Amino acid sequence: xxxxxxxxxxxxxxxxxxxxxxxxxxxxxxxxxxxxxxxxxxxxxxxxxxxxxxxxxxxxxxxxxxxxxxxxxxxxxxxxxxxxxxxxxxxxxxxxxxxxxxxxxxxxxxxxxxxxxxxxxxxxxxxxxxxxxxxxxxxxxxxxxxxxxxxxxxxxxxxxxxxxxxxxxxxxxxxxxxxxxxxxxxxxxxxxxxxxxxxxxxxxxxxxxxxxxxxxxxxxxxxxxxxxxxxxxxxxxxxxxxx
Length: 243
Ligand SMILES: *[C@@H]1O[C@H](CO)[C@@H](O)[C@H](O)[C@H]1NC(C)=O
Ligand SMILES: *[C@@H]1O[C@H](CO)[C@@H](O)[C@H](O)[C@H]1NC(C)=O
Ligand SMILES: *[C@@H]1O[C@H](CO)[C@@H](O)[C@H](O)[C@H]1NC(C)=O
Prior knowledge:
Elements: H1 2-11, H2 17-30, E1 36-39, E2 43-47, E3 52-54, E4 57-60, E5 71-77, E6 84-88, E7 98-100, E8 112-114, E9 123-133, E10 137-142, E11 146-151, E12 155-158, E13 165-173, E14 178-184, E15 187-188, E16 192-197, E17 203-211, E18 216-224, E19 227-236, H3 238-242
Parallel strand pairs: 2-11
Antiparallel strand pairs: 1-4, 3-8, 5-6, 5-9, 7-8, 9-10, 9-11, 12-13, 13-17, 14-15, 14-18, 16-17, 18-19
Bound molecules: 2-acetamido-2-deoxy-beta-D-glucopyranose (3 copies).
């Protein structure tokens, strides 16, 4: 009976009133029936051209025993969410680009390596596992999706047209929430922000310009929400500035 109820739950069927009451009862008895989760981080930022680890971990409570090796699916959800490309096992488009990092048949770590990240890889990914649990049947469980966001190296230099203007620039996935911030000797500066995009390109160019009249250390940071993703440093020589 327990396995019947649990199976229904995992398949997302609407349970009968009695099934629900029974489930609540069992839940109170055991204290923890939501035992199988697939963890994947909500966001991963990767520099274009690098190999990125797409984390996915199957988490079981102590009393769950797998009776088969879990079957792994990693999918890229295309823009419209209608088309799905398969990263694992790799479909033709991903052959040579994806490795499973832990090949152990019964490993709970289903992280994959996606090689040579490109703009077109920006988007949402889901890790899905087909699992068979002893006394609990087979079911599929998905993670909460990972959004991959891509960026290029930061370019931080004096403007070609004005050598007292310091300009920081980066290309990053469009609409991904990246932001630039420039500091001088640790203090955040008021900057002149700009964002430009070329139609049909999946990235935008973010830029910040600041006056570089004061000598010292300038730092440009690429941030995503509160996280520092990358930074670049530029020193302005005080002596030269005075000349
Ligand atoms: C998935 O998202 C839901 C709703 O935000 C959350 O309650 C749950 O803990 C998440 N699961 C995992 C495994 O991160
Ligand atoms: C899973 O594998 C990835 C890649 O090797 C690693 O970074 C991560 O720490 C592993 N997770 C656990 C829980 O061991
Ligand atoms: C060069 O940049 C500085 C600092 O922003 C500005 O005050 C100045 O007017 C600019 N000069 C020219 C020629 O645009």
